[in-house]
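Exercise (ungraded).
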Amino acid sequence: MHVMVTGAAGMIGRKLAERLGQEGALAGAAITVLTLSDIVAPPVPAGFAGAVSRVTADLAAAGVAERLISARPEVVFHGAGVVSAEAEMDLEKGYHANLDGTRMLLEAVREVGGGYRPKVVFTSSCAVFGAPFPDVIPDDFHLTPLTSYGTQKAMCELMLADYSRRGFLDGVGLRLPAVCVRPGPPNKAASGFFSAIIREPLAGRDTVLPVSEDVLHTHASPRATVGFLIHAAGLSRDVLGPRINITMPGVCCTVGEQIEALRRVAGDAAVARIRRAPDPLVERIVAGWPHRFDAARARALGFVAESSFDEIVRIHVEDDLGGRLPA
Amino acid sequence: MHVMVTGAAGMIGRKLAERLGQEGALAGAAITVLTLSDIVAPPVPAGFAGAVSRVTADLAAAGVAERLISARPEVVFHGAGVVSAEAEMDLEKGYHANLDGTRMLLEAVREVGGGYRPKVVFTSSCAVFGAPFPDVIPDDFHLTPLTSYGTQKAMCELMLADYSRRGFLDGVGLRLPAVCVRPGPPNKAASGFFSAIIREPLAGRDTVLPVSEDVLHTHASPRATVGFLIHAAGLSRDVLGPRINITMPGVCCTVGEQIEALRRVAGDAAVARIRRAPDPLVERIVAGWPHRFDAARARALGFVAESSFDEIVRIHVEDDLGGRLPA
């Protein structure tokens, strides 16, 4: 089986490629070729026995998607695109990378024709939703995104469903919750603190909490997120039905509950590294985000998130810190 | 005030241009220039005192939207596009006309900049919804279109909302119910019978009913539809808020109730011209369409539909038959 990953240099793309490489199989079939594509060179996953093809190119540039798809991958994990803040700062870049890139990919698949009908697993986001929200967002809640990023993801979801309905491909779009704990250096994203308040203390560094402890949010670990993508690749068209874009489950908890989970895993000293410094701008942005999802359909389809935030903290320690807690 | 209408040669576009020409004003301001654009030459509305500019061109072709927008119309009624059946038969044409055409228009507005921020009234459709449905579709129900046409309209709604949020324009999208009674010759659309069972008997011609009389559907007359568009042009950004795409109200009734309305307006002889000829294909297509909308938000915003199907029949007689009933 030939499996392709777009956005393979991103955090989730890298972890997905590593896991595919380690498992060597997907949906019951051995992976013989792994094509990894991104605008910067993606790393080669360790320990994969099959062939790895790396393509460093802009998916939205003319001819790139055609070239990638001409090798007829059976499964395409499509995660390429620019992130929320970038799409908001640079409108043209966001529509180019996120909308045109996806459209180029879907068009390239359609143009192959001749019975070629790959599984396309699309990385969408809970940013497709926009406030005001009910307490729990049901699976049939409308999409009124409040960012250009969310708009582009929602537009791609629609096109993916249409191309699936018309039989050009078997698409499935996953609306991911906040991915936490995000490894790597702190970033400027308004959501950065959700990960930083866990990651930085666990790395022995101080960090700042800009919002109140009663802020509620839904999280899934990078490991669970990669699990969602892999599970989606194994879902048949019959099981999915026509509503192929699905809100993923996660652990819904307050910032205060996140901090108590950190305390249980790493002790008071870790928690003492969190300094309260309320930031009205961040508080205002976060207030516009969805808190809690029903995700009944995803759970019924077998998507599994963590069952507690403690588990999310422990997964970060295992997967990103080699199992080591701070001294 | 300079008002532009795209799709001005279509049935609704023509009626809208006629009404704008007759009223000579929109949202309290006198109309000095009326630009009418379509891919075929739009008719000149009778009795308009201002200047009429007609542009026969494909809005989605390079440079056309820029040329139209360079004259800086204060209000743009954007109805250009291909209809449902055509978008389904020709995928490329549908995405070109319906998605790219709208994107070209929005981009042309954005590129003018310098404080230019027109009102853009977009003609969307209840085809953005897809079965299965609750008995009454609430205003916050998700969009899962089952046609490429509905997909393209939903994608345009999202982009219109994003461009409005970013301050490039003041958009409002109207999800129109079935427009009934549609004048002109019978067409091949699966929905054609909803109008034909009224229009043909009133014109002294026989017609065929392909579905059961208990089929439920929501209708608005062409006059009410034009009224929705004109009312939308007068709604301020503050009143609309960020959720600018709105499901319009209509008269929800069964086919049997339509026929009884025809009987009350035109007598038994008219009803006798309807022959039952069940068509399983049409029955199946119609079963996938939404029946009834809450449209609470539209009603609260002052959009007014007819209050009975009798009124819809009488409006057809007045507006399209010169007030004459069959002998």
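Further reading is listed at the end of the chapter. For now, observe: Chain A has a mean pLDDT of 96. The interface with chain B takes residues 91, 110, 130, 139-146, 148, 151, 154-155, 158-159, 161-162, 165-166, 242-243 of chain A (CB under 8 Å).
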